[in-house]
Each structure stands twice: as structure tokens, then as C-alpha cells.
Amino acid sequence: MQFSDIDNGKTFDWENTSKDYAKYRDIYPEEFYQSILDLGLCRDGQKVLDIGTGTGVLPRNMYRYGAKWIGTDISENQIQQAKLLSAESGMGIEYYACPAEGVDYPEDTFDVITVCQCIWYLDPKVITGKFARMLKPGGKLLILYMGWLPYEDEIAGKSEEIILKHNPNWSSYGDTVHPVYVPEELLTNFDMVLQKEFRVDVSFSREGWHGRMRACRGVGAAMNEAQLQAWNEEHMRMLNENAPEVFDVKHYVSIAELQVKK
Predict the structure, then answer these.
(1) How far is 65 from 56, CA to CA, in rounded Å?
(2) Of 231, 239, 237, 238, which Cα lies nearest the Cα of 166?
(3) How does pLDDT run across 206-256, given as a tens digit for each residue?
(4) For residue 126, what is the enclosing H or E element?
(5) DSSP code, position 181
(6) d(Cα 163, Cα 173) in Å, to the nearest integer?
(7) If you ran DSSP here, which 8-state letter would residue 109 be given?
């Protein structure tokens, strides 16, 4: 994938990090899922389409609440991992490899469409009408994000410094608590219902945080073999010198709930 406004136009490929993604990116705390349930969404027989599902983290963790899930992602490898993980747990979740702009279901198919950690990769001019059409009357579009806070958390800050040293094109550094990005084109077909942010602490082992960093866009999806080896060594050394075996990293969650216009 390549975007002029992301990573200075440097290409990245989620196919390269799918195994790490499957192993290390299932990190959302219970508060994250509870905030969705508190909105009355993704539960109790609702039909939900998860765009950019990756390894199916959202549908797999919310499956027990009774929604009927379909997950799509542009990456074949991500979808393969999602299918394997869901099958291991006996979950009846459908997965398809397809770019968001190519997803096409009949009118009034879904109660909810979720877009987690990926809204900035989608073409809003294409998805706004398509998503509105696929949603039932009153259907909801839920945009979700969770990020670490490098200016408030020492380990997160040091991790970012090491990523930038080995991949100076990476542009997702320096996050602060702020509303999740909602493309203005979506407001042609949707009304904003709610936007909220809240802080969470997420627990990691050294290996878990190292893997989570390796699975991010600026590392495993973008670095060549030599860069990745150098990053691996330096980042693990930093963790061994600065972090206990288990530690919390400061994060925040940001949610936007939109509803199809009447």
C-alpha cells in the first residue's frame, strides 16, 4: 500500500506482518469492548460488517455477545490468520479478502459497520454512499481507534524513537488524546451521534510489547530485512534495560458513532 500523506509516500505491506499481527495485536482491554456494548452495538443478533478486520480481533473478541459478524480485509494473509484463529475457537465468523472500496452487499444488509484502526486508509468518497446503502435504516457506522501515548509513557516514547531511527519515513509518531479522524465526506450520508475519548492502561510483557511494535506499520510492514534485524536488537535491548518483565503502557481509546441519514 502507498499513500502520499502517510509515511512520506513509502510503501508498506500488511502481508509481511500478519503472523506478528495475529500473535501480538489482540491487545484491546475490556473497557474498549464494553464501550461498544454500552452503545447497544455489536450484540444480540445484530448483523455486523467489520472493515479492515485484520486478523479478526474485533469480531473474535465480541463474538460471545451474539452479533453475526462478517470481516473483510485487503490482506490475504491477514484473512488467513483470522480464519485460523476463529476456527480454533469454534467461531462462525465469515471472512473475505477484499479492499473496503470493493465490498458490496445488498441494501439494508447490516445493522452496524465497524472500522477499527484503519479509517485513514479508506477512500471516503467511495465508502460513504456504499456503506450507507448497505446499512439498514437507522444503521450505525462505528469508527474505532486505540493508540499509545508517547509523551506520557516512557517506554512508548523510547519505542517511537527507535522506530524513527530505523525508519525515518514513519509518520504515526507523537500521538496525543484527540477525536478519531472522521472524513468530512462521510457526513454527506451520515449524522454524527457521538464522539468520545477515554484513557486506558494496557499490560504487556517485554516480548508482548516488542511483538506489538514489530507488528506496526512502521516496522514489520515497512522495514527491509536489515532494518528489521537492527531494530529488533536495539528495541529489545532498550526493553531489557528500561522495562520490568510486565508493565503497563498508557493508551487512549477514541470512538465516533455515526448514523445513516434518514
Answers:
(1) 15
(2) 231
(3) 999 999 999 999 999 899 999 999 999 999 999 999 999 999 999 999 999
(4) helix 124-134
(5) P
(6) 9
(7) -
